[in-house]
Amino acid sequence: MPDAKKFLYVNRKAPYGTIYALESLEVVLIAAAFEQDVSLAFLDDGVFQLTKDQNTDGIGVKNFSPTFRALGDYEVTKLFVEKESLEERGLDPSDLQEITWEDEDADWEEKPSIRIVSRAEMADIMADQDVVLSF
Amino acid sequence: MPDAKKFLYVNRKAPYGTIYALESLEVVLIAAAFEQDVSLAFLDDGVFQLTKDQNTDGIGVKNFSPTFRALGDYEVTKLFVEKESLEERGLDPSDLQEITWEDEDADWEEKPSIRIVSRAEMADIMADQDVVLSF
Amino acid sequence: MSTLHTVNKSPFGDGALLSCIEHCKPGDGVLLIEDGVYGALSGSAISDAVVARAADVTFYLLEGDAKARGLPEGKLLGQVTPVGYDGFVDLVTEHDRSQSWL
Amino acid sequence: MSTLHTVNKSPFGDGALLSCIEHCKPGDGVLLIEDGVYGALSGSAISDAVVARAADVTFYLLEGDAKARGLPEGKLLGQVTPVGYDGFVDLVTEHDRSQSWL
Amino acid sequence: MKFGIVVSEGPYTHQAADTAYHFAKAALDKGHEVPRVFFYHDGVNVSSSLTVPPQDERHIQKNWSTLASENEIDLVVCIAAAQRRGILDENEAKRQGKDAANLAEGFRISGLGQLIEMGIEYDRMVMFGD
Amino acid sequence: MKFGIVVSEGPYTHQAADTAYHFAKAALDKGHEVPRVFFYHDGVNVSSSLTVPPQDERHIQKNWSTLASENEIDLVVCIAAAQRRGILDENEAKRQGKDAANLAEGFRISGLGQLIEMGIEYDRMVMFGD
Fold first, then answer.
1. Could you tell me which residues come within 8 angstroms of residue A45 by beta carbon, excluding any fewer than 6 positions away?
2. Residue B9 in contact with residue B24, Cβ under 8 Å?
3. Level-2 CATH architecture, domain A6-134
4. Which residues pair with F107 in a beta bridge?
5. Taking CB atoms and an 8 Å limit, are D97 and A132 in contact across chains?
6. Domains in chain A: boundaries
């Protein structure tokens, strides 16, 4: 992809209370078709989007968290989650669902899509993009 | 007013960035016709609604801050502003516009409508209401 | 005479829960709903403030909202009582007024 | 390579400005717009954080938004430079990308 | 008891209209009365007859219309808030020279006085917003 | 330079649509290009033809329609976001069996690909929201 641009989708909001998390995911699914270099950032309340065992039966709203697990099939494999944001919320990486992708260059080995990064690393990732879209 | 209920309109949001402050004021103006016991509370970012010298020419939005000065004519005379909220924002009472009402029981003496109260007093005011509406 | 306060925003990005905690009175109830349920997480930057106030105020959370957000039961503060929508209705009736921290 | 960050919410009720301050890089610009302009108030609970970061980041505010909200010029931090919508456009062109802290 | 409910945010974007709906249902199930629900701010957008949510999602407007018709709830949309946001009934559309109306069945447009009345007449007021 | 602008909140409720408008005007005044503005989330509500703001207020939808026609700006409204919120053009209204359409002049409904294209093709993207 010589002309591919680096796109970062920044998620700072919790799911269900507002629609931003869901509509952000809808953008990412479409974006995957454009063969750009796609990364997702989860920081602040955005880390709540990735908690495991979400069950929305009690509130009558569609549970969209399984869609994150489909991102690997769309070749969206870089989900950066900020460590400090987790810690401030009393969460650790084991509270997040497992999201993997199959690496065709490594005999289809399953690799984790979620990468826990420090706040400083997140700042570096943000500064390394061509386009930053915020939700 | 033997059957009058105590209504408190709670304002915690800044003006112009969102419409809540303006639409709260629209409710208060209508409420005045119902001869209830009306109070307004300004705390947190709500204190910003009352700053003086608001000039919206540069953003093309209607300046509704003069309407606060008309509240006295509608017999809305109790505007409680929280001291701690002002202080956290680097403001003091002199940064707020003057809002007065004419007391017909005191020979139409002009009296200030804004009353600066502590956070503890604000909590007491809130606990003393029949109906609390939040904007 | 007591008030039921409802808080519907995450306390990590928004000041509503802290402001509510600083304005409620002994004997009041605070119900965490929608994104407000994150306020019930233990070991968070906000949990000490909730625990401290739980001395004289009763905290509740809307169970459906907590489950929707995948909050692990083991990580919820013991000081916060889960209720359903029916419990929400009861809380409104049991308090003299309700105040939404929007 | 630098970024123009825009912040449009009051820092007293919302965490966007602080998060932006913790994520921007030396040489970046931070433009306060809409309710974000309250972040330029001096002597506030937030002003120390802005002043500290102004050592290596340039802060701006949208002048029309500050005037609309009646912010007294004497109470604005000297570290924050006022710009108009035309200045906003220039800032976007002068930085390599822009990031909105929504 | 008589409950007054206020919805202050639009459908799907915020959860307010959903939470208010579940609360209203639970109140009715417990034998309480919900004589009126008032839609203010972006809440007026709940009354749009033109929403087409995905098929696997709840239909917020229809849920409210159905609940209202089954329980004789007065669904009132604030006229000033509605006009700003493009919600019009047939009469308003004609009066404003618009060729379309979009107020859904079971909702009616009226003034803010209806909100104050709820506060005066009902036992409890509960607001759902952002 | 070519600017891509995204508006993510509805008119009047949030200032986003106003700030974006003033920014777009200033960019055009300086000789930049604004080939397309994309309306997402509640931003789709800016395109409603049925808003009737008070006479002493700005008319946000008309401001955008005028700016677009004078400067050949492509005003794109996201179809998925629009359907959820009740914004339909004539075609969609027919297809969905609705008896009214409310997409204002100068706006068109299309997919999210139009947003990604802006990011790929333009020099800068600026988002206005909440």
1. A12, A13, A14, A85, A89, C10, C12, C13, C35, C38
2. yes
3. 3-Layer(aba) Sandwich (3.40)
4. F75
5. yes
6. 6-134
From the CA atom positions of chain A, what is the Rg in Å? 15
Who's near C41: CB < 8 A, 6+ residues apart? Answer: A89, A90, A91, C47, C71, C75, C76, C77
Q: Can you spell out the DSSP letters for A37-96?
A: EEEEEE-GGGGGGGBS----GGGT----THHHHHGGGGT---EEEEHHHHHHTT--GGGB
Q: Number of structural domains, chain C?
A: 1
Domain span holding position C43: 3-100
Residues of E whose CB is below 8 A from A17: 14-15
- The domains of chain F are located at 2-128
Half-sphere exposure in the Cβ direction for A71 (13 Å, CA): 28
In B, residues 22-61, which contact D (CB 8 Å cutoff)? 44-45, 48, 51-59, 61
Tokens for A78, please give them: 């870089």
Pick from D55, D45, B59: nearest CA to F57: B59
Q: Which two tokens stand for residue C21?
A: 């905690």
Contacts of F15 in chain B (CB under 8 A): 16-18, 59, 61
Q: Residue A2 above 70 pLDDT? A: no
Residue D72 pLDDT: 87
**Which stretches of chain C score pLDDT less than 50?**
none
Contacting partners of chain E (3+ CB pairs under 8 A) = A, B, C, F
Which CATH number among 3.20.20.20, 3.40.50.300, 3.20.20.140, 3.40.1260.10 corresponds to the domain F2-128?
A: 3.40.1260.10
The model's pLDDT over B21-79, given as tens digits with 9 standing for 90+, comes to: 999 999 999 999 999 999 999 999 999 999 999 999 999 999 999 999 999 999 999 99
Q: How far is CA F72 from the centre of its chain?
A: 13
Task: Output the six-digit token pair for D24.
Answer: 């921007």
Specify the pTM: 0.98
CA distances from F113 to A30, B23, E35, F76, F117 (A): 6, 36, 45, 11, 6
H or E segment and range at residue B31: helix B20-31
